[in-house]
Target: Queuosine 5'-phosphate N-glycosylase/hydrolase
Amino acid sequence: MSGKPLRGLLLTPLTCSLTLLVYYLGSFIFVLLANACKFVFLFLFLFMGIILLLDSRVNNAGIEKVVENIQGSIPKVEWDYEGIHYFDNGPLSVQYLFVLDAMNFCFWPDKDLNYDHLALGLKAALQNDKSAFDADRLQKYTGPELRELLKWPRPLPLEDERVRLLHEVGFELERNFGGKASNLVELCGKSAAKLVALVTRHFAGFRDHSVYKGHQVFLYKRAQIFVADLWGAFKGQGYGEFYDIGSITMFADYVVPAVLEQLGVLKYSSRLANIIETNNEISSGSEEEVELRACSVYAVEKMRELIRIKSGKQVLSVELDLWLWSVGVQCPALQHHRTLSIYY
Ligand SMILES: Nc1nc2c(c(CN[C@H]3C=C[C@H](O)[C@@H]3O)cn2[C@@H]2O[C@H](COP(=O)(O)O)[C@@H](O)[C@H]2O)c(=O)[nH]1
Model:
């Protein structure tokens, strides 16, 4: 009996301490949760902000749909399915492809001009005169002579740049590679990556890069397409043999991004969609331009990965690109972004 109040007296401070402990722990957990919520909301807010600020983004659901539709095997498109390129299985074909890719950019400002005119025009020029692309001759072409070579009746888009880049090709080939693009290829020991590095090191016009939010971004569209053209033309043999052809990404031009957008793989902000629909230009090196091009590279790599996961098949970005590009050029109503650029 007498122990009860004593026990009561003893228990009171213990109960108090426990209550205080529970109280402090509770408040601590509450503050922790409140802060965590704050961070979650802050993160969501920032994430939404970033998404809203980006003009292009990759839509995973769109990629899954495309991969499902093609059932793991991409439609095979033959390189030069149109028969528009010069090819004799020798070094002159390499010279032809290098000259072609030095000028493989920006056709859209002349609505009647496209890539085929360039490929066919240069092919005819070479068939007429086998020395037309000798390094010394390349350094002397003028705008009107280039037009004459291509049988184009009016000034070409960015004609001065095209001429300057032809001169650069001639000059650098002569200075470092005995005048021949085939020597350049032979120096790479059948490595696609080395060839891209060598071309961009020696030929400034091929250095397709921009600075995006302070980061230097390299897309190297024309340098990579030169490797792919060799691989396609020589059917992976001789000058077209590359053990690492898988290291080449898609070629970020103005056709493939438009196809990816149509397929639902790329999503544009309404602002960017409006610029494209109204045929307004996007300046070279702008954030929207870099996003659009970089998202295209990323999307094609994701597509490639998903094909591998779903079907176990290893496809090349070059093959995906060729398929997507051929779809795009067969669709004249396709609206693409317009950037005055020497890179694509
Ligand atoms: N991504 C990607 N872009 C490519 C090509 C090619 C040529 N490839 C040929 C070579 C062998 C094959 O058989 C192909 O036929 C040109 N372009 C770009 O397209 C745009 C021109 O469009 P349009 O104005 O409509 O002709 C321009 O930016 C040009 O640089 C490609 O393969 N992939």
Notes: The chain is about 60% helix and 5% strand. The two ends are 97 Å apart (CA to CA). Residues 79-81, 104-105, 107-108, 114-115, 225, 229, 232, 251, 253-256, 321-322, 325, 329, 344 surround 56B (CB under 6 Å).
